[in-house]
Every structure is written in structure tokens, then in C-alpha cells.
Amino acid sequence: MSTVQDAVRAVIAETFGVPPERLSDDTVADDVDGWDSLSHTVLMIRLQNAFGIRIPESVAAEVATVGELVAAVADIAGMKR
């Protein structure tokens, strides 16, 4: 079974065409080519679809690292990281 962390990283990797192992908890948008405000919105939609959740705009705007995004998705989905 995949962890939330693995699943979130997989969605990010697919969205931006990077290997998931290149993503760490400390990775920020500036570390990933093409991760801008528009693609961040696309990523949020993909994560919502993958987890069957709704990520509030305030949360989407606040997450700064992959680790924070994993934590937010896990909290919203009520899952363990």
C-alpha cells in the first residue's frame, strides 16, 4: 500500500515530469521547473481528484514545501502520512 507521501509525490512527479525520488519534504516550487501559480492550480485539482478531497484555496496558497502539502492532504483526507 502506498503512503500519502508516496501518492502526493507521484502526482507532483507526473504533473511536472520529474522523478518522484527527486522530491523531498523540503522541495519548494522554485526547485521544480514549470511549477508556477497556474501549474500549482492544476496540481491542486489533480490532488483533489486523486484523493477525493477538496483543498481549500487558503490551504493551497499556504503550503510552501512538498512536506507541507503532504501534511495538508493527509489532514484533509483523514489519512496517516
UniProtKB/TrEMBL annotation:
<protein>
    <submittedName>
        <fullName>Phosphopantetheine-binding</fullName>
    </submittedName>
</protein>
<dbReference type="InterPro" id="IPR009081">
    <property type="entry name" value="PP-bd_ACP"/>
</dbReference>
<feature type="domain" description="Carrier">
    <location>
        <begin position="2"/>
        <end position="77"/>
    </location>
</feature>
<dbReference type="Pfam" id="PF00550">
    <property type="entry name" value="PP-binding"/>
</dbReference>
<dbReference type="InterPro" id="IPR036736">
    <property type="entry name" value="ACP-like_sf"/>
</dbReference>
